[in-house]
Amino acid sequence: MEAVTHPSPLPGSFADGVFPAGCPSRTLLDHITSKWGVLILVALSEGEQRWSELRRRADGISEKMLAQTLKTLERDGLVSRRAQPVIPPRVDYSLTEKGYELAELLVPLVGWAFDNAEEIINGKP
Questions:
Q1: Burial of 54 by CB count in 10 Å (0-12 exposed, 13-18 middle, 19+ buried)?
Q2: Burial of 2: CB neighbours in 10 Å, binned 0-12, 13-18, 19+
Q3: pLDDT per residue over 71-120, tens digit each?
């Protein structure tokens, strides 16, 4: 029989396990766990990439959503944008130190979702 491990307890700053409505962590969680936020962060965990590479890897994302997601993650300090002074214009995106720290946590989550999605979605847990 496989041993079941339990997750670590919540930080002590969550009084009585309550997630306060005004807590900035809720805003950040919304940004990083959005449909596209997770995919962009995981894609960038493999290194610097151009706009077109990110759009291809996050299959189905619109140009508008990619731009919005990248701007949000850049504003949050998780993604770095580097414009190259060349013609045609070139912009490269990469993770910041905080972005890599976060990606280390997200990659296993995405792997777990990939490994278990079919079984769970098809109702055979």
A1: buried
A2: exposed
A3: 999 999 999 999 988 888 889 999 999 999 999 999 999 999 999 999 99
All residues at 6 or more sequence positions from 96 whose CB lies less than 8 Å from its CB, including other chains: 77, 78, 79, 80
d(CA 94, CA 113): 24
Q: What is the pTM of this model?
A: 0.83
- Give the end-to-end CA distance of the chain in Å, rounded to a whole number: 17
Measure the CA–CA gap between 90 and 82, rounded to whole angstroms: 8
- The two beta strands, 90-95 and 79-84, are antiparallel
- CA nearest neighbour of 44 among 114, 92, 110: 92
3-state secondary structure of 94: strand
